[in-house]
């Protein structure tokens, strides 16, 4: 089976740091994506982790622990425009099928 | 604009009718994906192509759904005998191939079945 869990909603303050967690149980794993999706728009790519550890890209960082089936997305210096849904997705073994979680809706308040 | 286009952007149809959607990926991308997304959920995998070959299809894709990518460029997704439960946003994405896994999504086709 396959299961990807993320919190449904989070609220944070402009300028702060927020961590969005994702846990997964999938039959096969070959990498984990984070995508951002603003309301009414298509998802846009943020990060892809294959190996354990932290990858930093500007204000956004993504962490993966394959042994724990766990990832997080860290957003620093939050801006109002960061209000969006953040989707965790797993690429399964042996191909390119990608399974998405339901997403975490982040609200950034002033 | 990611460079992936979808047509139409909106489709309203009556239950029982057939509908067809088109996706034009970024020209040099050899992988193409179809997803379905409903409100408050993440995209749900339907199928993907490597060039013109359909390599995997979700079990959720019943006999009423079919997808093609005849020349390895654009793709079509057809839904036959539409049902109200088919109402959703249908998203297409493409990726370059090789060791590049980042998917670029199109704006989607919103289907409403009445």
Compressed to H and E, one letter per element, the order of chain B equals: EEEEEEEEEEE
* Overall pLDDT level of chain B: 93
Biggest β-sheet description of chain B: 7 strands, mixed
Structural class of the helices, strands and pairings of chain B? mainly beta
Number-wise, the strands of chain B total: 11
Strand residue percentage of chain B: over 45%
* Relative strand content of chain A: over 45%
Helix content of chain A: under 10%
List the total number of helices of chain B.
0
Q: Would you write up a description of this structure?
A:
Chain A is mainly beta and 110 residues long. In chain A, 0% of the residues lie in helices and 58% in strands. In chain A, strands 2, 4, 5, 9, 10 and 11 form a six-stranded mixed β-sheet that branches. In chain A, strands 1-3-8-7-6 form a five-stranded antiparallel β-sheet, with no helix packed on it. Helices cover 0% and strands 49% of the residues of chain B. Chain B has no helices and eleven strands. Chain B has strands at 5-7, 10-13, 19-24, 31-37, 44-50, 53-57, 65-68, 75-79, 88-95, 104-105, 109-113. In chain B, strands 2, 4, 5, 6, 9, 10 and 11 form a seven-stranded mixed β-sheet that branches. In chain B, strands 1-3-8-7 form a four-stranded antiparallel β-sheet, with no helix packed on it. Chain B is globular. The interface between A and B is medium-sized, with 21 and 24 residues.
